[in-house]
Amino acid sequence: MSAQTTIRIALDWTPNTLHTGLFVAQHKHFYTSANLSVHLQSPDPLYSETPARQLERGAVDLAVCPSESCIAYAHAGKTPLQAIYAILQRDASAVVSTKLSRVKELEAGVYGSYAARYEDDIVRDMVRADGGDAAGMRVSGAGEAGKLDLFAAMRRGQLDATWVFMPWEGVEAEEAGVPLHVFRLEDYGIPYGYSPVIVRNAGAAAGLSEEVLRDFVRATVEGYRYAMEHVEEAVEILRPHCEPRRETAFLRKSQLAINEFCGNRLGFMEEGKWKAWTSWLESRDLLDGVTVDARQLYSNSFFDEG
Fold first, then answer.
1. What is the C-alpha separation between 130 and 104, in angstroms, rounded?
2. In a domain, 303, yes or no
3. Range of the domain at 102
4. Max Cα separation, the chain?
5. Sheet with 81-86, edge to edge strand ranges
6. How much is the pTM?
7. 133-187 pLDDT tens trace
8. DSSP string spanning 2-47?
């Protein structure tokens, strides 16, 4: 047998139930059976370098990030980032607040921003759609706490709202008895794209071969399917990787919530969803007149037929 191909993957967040399928595929040897050695790398606490940036400079072979990363790189004419797997089929994120009953109220509030591309403009559009004055919204960055701590900062009352994944922070708030006001992008006319996705550098001269990527996608589908069908075992596989450690009951509840968003054809992407998202960004003049071809932003060619 030939030597294993090493694949380094930059995670978008500290290990959580969005990543369970990856850890399951690793733990159950789905990757090694495909002759792959997969290494999952967490971001540093201050999130000093995005997964997309790590991929761009060749520090990793794949990265987990929102679809906006692919769009932003195409928009800037930089390294072509291409999604090869959508972890979720439907948007599981939302802007949330413990204080504000309407997103309009952010016109006089402070939004906790991750400084992601298009993020603040998206939230301002939500404020406008709710009848507010988006110009009045203030934005606060992560500061010394790091980008991974914005939800905790909001719960402490330091921020009025921030963007979260409901199957994780939403479950966390529910477990703690903290009521959240939830503002979903779709309710404000925003056709948000796939998030997160696993992306490759399609322009890398020495990137992973198509055969390796096909083996990776096949094993990843197997990992996520196993996680959906064996929730108890899956969360026990994930639990040692969580920092801080999480109780099994929390992870089980989060995993069940995540599974609702994974869809039937795991990882597969629809062109219409990419087009709707890029068209919306263009309609808001967020692409500076640059035409981004949605068909270049993703590829389903590494999936098995059917």
1. 5
2. no
3. 93-188
4. 63
5. 36-41, 5-10, 62-65, 197-201, 81-86
6. 0.94
7. 999 999 987 554 455 588 999 999 999 999 999 999 999 999 999 999 999 999 9
8. PPPEEEEEE-SSSS-TTSHHHHHHHHTTHHHHTTEEEEEEPPPTT-
